[in-house]
Write a structure and sequence with these properties.
The complex is a heterodimer of chains A (162) and B (119). Chain A has 162 residues and is of the alpha+beta class. Chain A is built from 3 helices and 7 strands. Chain B has a single domain, classed as Rossmann fold (3-Layer(aba) Sandwich). The chains are: A alpha+beta (162), B alpha/beta (119).
Chain lengths: 162, 119
């Protein structure tokens, strides 16, 4: 890997990290990448977290339909899928935590593969369509955590010159 | 034994409590705090035996809380449970007096492995 990870490097770290998240804290069979593209999701829920370095910043996001968000947060909290849905504020907190855990693992993976030092921000939960600046690179991965369809997003700001 | 679980996320506090139960510590009392400042109050009020603390929190983060404890002469057993587990963070944690750092994602086995040697 080059000194500054590319958007592909970041997405690869997200996919690798999601497998560990699935098999540990979510008690699921693993994760599976279906395809990657550059189109932003038009609807659904997603939680994002900033990963900021001295010369580079990315946003990592995990998105899913409201129903699938509930399945994932119930798994995180050790609940059965047919248990009563979490209240919106509980779901937001728990889904943001899933993204936070994923981003922490991504930081570890990237740290092992490159020299860069990054810090994590605070997770942010967004409902609906996302708009990003034209100067940002975007990569989206359609994937599954266990049997649950999810979307991983990486948005990368232009690297600053050293 | 009394555990103090410090995390600004209610979800994570629930998950840490559940993992403690799964790791065999279900018979012990668990109290909670939402950030380092709140945790300082809970330590003064409830005298926990073990503190499991997140790192990134608003108002007072986990490292500032640990440093405040140590500067006040408090030697309660302290471990971090946090999203990030880089070698630099582990060194910073132990240099400041933490006994261990559990990075997420974790399992009940991780808790047993880190807690058994210090309890």
């Amino acid at each position: 890997m080059s000194e500054y990870p590319s958007i592909n490097d970041w997405m690869d770290a997200v996919v690798v990290s999601s497998d560990e998240l699935a098999t540990t804290m979510l008690g699921m069979s693993g994760s599976e990448l279906i395809r990657t593209h550059n189109g932003l999701p038009k609807e659904g829920n997603a939680a994002y977290i900033s990963v900021v370095g001295e010369q580079s910043a990315v946003q990592i996001g995990v998105g899913a339909t409201p129903e699938n968000c509930q399945i994932l947060v119930k798994a995180l909290m050790g609940m059965e899928p047919d248990e009563e849905d979490l209240e919106p504020d509980e779901m937001t907190d728990a889904f943001s935590e899933i993204t936070n855990i994923l981003a922490g693992q991504v930081k570890t993976v990237i740290g092992k593969r490159s020299e860069i030092k990054v810090n994590l921000g605070i997770p942010m939960f967004i409902k609906g369509e996302l708009h990003v600046p034209e100067s940002s690179e975007v990569q989206v991965a359609e994937a599954k955590i266990g049997d649950v369809p999810v979307t991983f997003l990486v948005m990368k700001n232009a690297d600053k010159k050293a | 034994m009394k555990f103090l679980v410090v995390d600004d996320s209610k979800t994570m506090r629930m998950i840490v409590k559940r993992t403690l139960r799964q790791a065999g510590y279900g018979d012990h009392e668990v109290i909670e705090a939402v950030n380092g400042k709140d945790a300082l109050d809970k330590v003064a009020q409830d005298s926990p035996d073990v503190i499991l603390c997140d790192w990134n929190m608003p108002e007072m983060n986990g490292l500032e809380f640990l440093q405040a404890l140590k500067s006040g002469g408090n030697n309660t057993k302290f471990g971090f449970v946090t999203s990030e587990g880089t070698p630099e963070m582990i060194k910073t944690a132990t240099d400041n007096g933490a006994l261990f750092l559990i990075s997420k994602p974790f399992t009940a086995d991780t808790f047993k492995e880190k807690l058994e040697p210090v309890l």
